[in-house]
Design a protein that fits this description.
ABC transporter involved in vitamin B12 uptake, BtuC, membrane, Iron ABC transporter
């Protein structure tokens, strides 16, 4: 794809992401006009509007965008590695492993970077378990890998249930909302944003090699790609992206499944375009989902994971039907 043609959809997706973020900070229990929102963003509005936008809504919106971008890029990388459009951090158990690691740290009274490190360890352990069990003594197949991921995810779900059963009662509401995916208490979004930017900068130079790897490891090796280090890089990178997304906003499913699939239908399968497009499209999708979660039963709020599941489950079933 020529550079000009590749650049055009990325610009459109960036504008879409910007529009969804402006909509998100404008909509809520106290609605703001577009003029009031822009004035608050530039620091020239009333003090009440500035507090509402800059301190309450904008951090949540940025956290949702960064989380969606991380999950979509992680899903796209897993789909390249497995050559399977059904691959997704949530379906393969990475999100469950990260959630267990993060919850263990929280129950131990830890916080900050230690929680992220624990989530990364859980996601990486889940990745190794899924691929190790699916591989066995022979080569894995997409259906075998998918089944193993579903079983591992169910195992992590059982561990999470046990942790909830023994957790202090006062912590249960927050833990349950966090497990369903909730960006209301995401905190600072900047670590997730920085990681998303670094991930895009690192994978773009490897786009050509990823295109070859998507055709199979044997063909990639024959064409000069160092397959094993690249596969391990995808393992570790997808685990880190998933862990950061989970520690930012909890366990949110199906973003890494829906976004790469839809963008491939629209833009083709060139990873040099798809991966940055996933970062923008995933962010825009989760911002829209979080906006819906805030307003659909206002003044009450839904966990954003409920909205993404309502979008993702039909898409997953459709892809499963098509793969027969």
């Amino acid at each position: 794809m020529p550079a000009s043609e590749a650049f055009r959809p990325l610009v459109l997706l960036a504008l879409l992401g910007l529009a969804t973020m402006v909509l998100s900070v404008s909509v809520g229990s106290a609605g703001l006009s577009l003029a009031d929102t822009l004035a608050a963003l530039t620091g020239s509005g009333s003090e009440l509007n500035r507090t509402l936008v800059l301190e309450l809504r904008l951090p949540r919106t940025l956290a949702a965008f960064a989380t969606g971008g991380l999950l979509a890029v992680a899903g796209a990388l897993m789909q390249v590695l497995l050559r399977n459009p059904l691959a997704d951090p949530y379906v393969l158990g990475l999100s469950g492993g990260a959630a267990v690691g993060a919850l263990l740290s929280m129950l131990a009274g830890l916080a900050g970077v230690i929680v992220t490190a624990s989530a990364f360890g859980g996601a990486l352990l889940s990745t190794l378990m899924v691929f190790g069990l699916a591989h066995g003594t022979g080569s894995w197949t997409p259906s075998r890998l998918l089944l193993t991921g579903v079983v591992v995810a169910a195992g992590w779900g059982a561990v999470i249930t046990l942790m909830l059963a023994i957790a202090p009662t006062r912590d249960l509401p927050g833990m349950l909302y966090w497990l369903m995916g909730d960006v209301a208490y995401a905190g600072t979004p900047w670590p997730a944003f920085v990681l998303l930017l670094l991930a895009c900068l690192l994978v773009l130079p490897a786009g050509r090699s990823l295109n070859v790897l998507a055709r199979g490891p044997l063909q990639a090796a024959a064409l000069g790609v160092n397959v094993r280090p690249m596969e391990w890089g995808i393992y570790i990178g997808a685990s880190l992206l998933t862990a950061t997304a989970v520690t930012t906003a909890g366990s949110i499913g199906f973003v890494g499944l829906v976004v790469p699939h839809m963008l491939r239908l629209l833009l083709g399968n060139d990873q040099r375009v798809i991966l940055p497009a996933c970062a923008l499209g995933g962010g825009a999708l989760l911002v829209l989902a979080d906006t819906l979660a805030r307003v659909v039963i206002a003044p009450e709020q839904l966990p954003v994971g409920v909205i993404t599941a309502l979008l993702g489950v039909p898409t997953f079933l459709y892809l499963l039907y098509r793969s027969r």
